Amino acid sequence: MKPIAIFRHSPGEGPGYFATFLDRHSLPWTLFKIDDGVSPPPTPDEFSGLCFMGGPMSVNDDLPWIPLTLALIRQADAAGIPVIGHCLGGQLMARAFGATVGRNPVKEIGWGEVATTDAAKDWLGDIARFEAFHWHGETFTIPQGASRLLHSTHCANQAFVRGPHLAMQCHVEMTDTMIQSWCRQWTAEGVPPSASVQTPEQMEENMGARIAAMRAVADRLYGRWIEGLRRN
């Protein structure tokens, strides 16, 4: 089986639990360190799926790898190769599929509940709501031909599905190490605590149990996504 390509856009925003899930299912993967100057491959033909992680930049920034990434996502879609995106990755998918990405009404940082839509039943079964981790100031609109999967009080579009593709605004891939690392960057965000912004202390409270509960949801989402992997 061809490997799954994982694209990292920032050193602190690696594949996290997504890689753990793939390893547990004996699925090969390879990491493209875009933040280290590695360019996206010209085609998706050598991969069974594509995964795009988060990052502090905007998809609207003038960065040389963004047009290449958007083209790669469109090629994967045309070839029936499934794509999954986390936060920035989901925004890249939205742009590639013709939607827009812009400022969310508020920054969303920390743990927050998301609710499912009817379209989520095929991906999450009877799960109606769960607590996810968030760290974003922008968000996407829903592309044509896609269905909204998740929403929250502070962000209307938390995830969408389009055929075999899954784009998420929230971060279900988080590990305790990643959360602790991101919390050290909290001051740089320049926003006070609010209904949508937690302090590092709030984010780290009961973190082990929260991560365990979120991983049960991630297992369902990732498990459904790998069903579409190209097997030849």
Automatic annotation (TrEMBL):
PROSITE patterns: GATASE_TYPE_1. Pfam families: GATase. Residues 45-177 form the Glutamine amidotransferase domain. Transmembrane segments: none annotated. GO terms for cellular component: cytosol. PANTHER family: GLUTAMINE AMIDOTRANSFERASE YLR126C-RELATED (PTHR42695). This is Glutamine amidotransferase domain-containing protein.
